[in-house]
Amino acid sequence: MMFRMLAADFLKIRRKAIWFLIFLGPVGVIALQAANYGLRYDYLMEKYAANPWGAFLGNIQFLLPVTILLGIAIIASMVANIEHRMNSWKQLLALPLSRTAVFSAKFVLCVLMLLVSCILLGIGIVGLGLVLKLGTDVPLDNIAKLSFYPVIAAFPALALQLWLSVTLRNQALPLTVGIFGGVLSMYAARMPDWFLWKLPLLTNEAGKPEYSVFAGLAVGTVIFAVGLIHFTRRDVN
Questions:
Q1: What is the pLDDT of residues 113-123, one digit of tens each?
Q2: Which residues contact 64 (CB under 8 A, 6 or more apart)?
Q3: CA–CA separation, 150 vs 172, rounded Å?
Q4: Which of 109, 118, 146, 172 is most exposed by smallest CB count within 10 Å?
Q5: Which residues contact 45 (CB under 8 A, 6 or more apart)?
Q6: How confident is the model at residue 1 (pLDDT cuts 50, 70, 90)?
Q7: Dihedral over Cα of 114, 210, 195, 221: its sign
């Protein structure tokens, strides 16, 4: 049942601006890094001559949390707002479909679109690194982690944003929460490890990014479950 809902949701977002956003995120990050190296190429290559790929990936990692969190807020809002704008929640929920399937399909749709962005980001990182002549020893494992780990660690934010966006017709509050979270992420490095918007930074006291990823999965599952329970028990206008 959920797969039928997911297929229907994909049809609803066909030819929507949401796909432009999916491409804009990774392209924007790569473009900013290309501009950074274009303006300071000799200086950066000399400064990080011992580990050019490591410095390159570190600069990209700095840009990712705020980009991901803002993107999540907008994507979740746009996915939910399709039903809000068409006043179709009541008609949708009147169909012989479980509310669990409806809510889960929206969440999976957001995850799949974010994974598309992750793949594009990984391709862009490799391509730009080769263009900048950082070396032929491409650290594919580190690039894969950099491309996917922050998004997985941001699952709590995704679950929260989708919950707010689906249950509130006015998208001002969900978007405000998303923007606030994105801004907070830029200053979250010194916050406790449990701070939701710190997780995409992949920094923690243990010094292991995998801990942030596992925490993101666990907390994201809890918030998703709470949002699902709330959605199944309330009226949606």
A1: 999 999 999 99
A2: 29, 146, 150, 200
A3: 25
A4: 172
A5: 52
A6: low
A7: positive
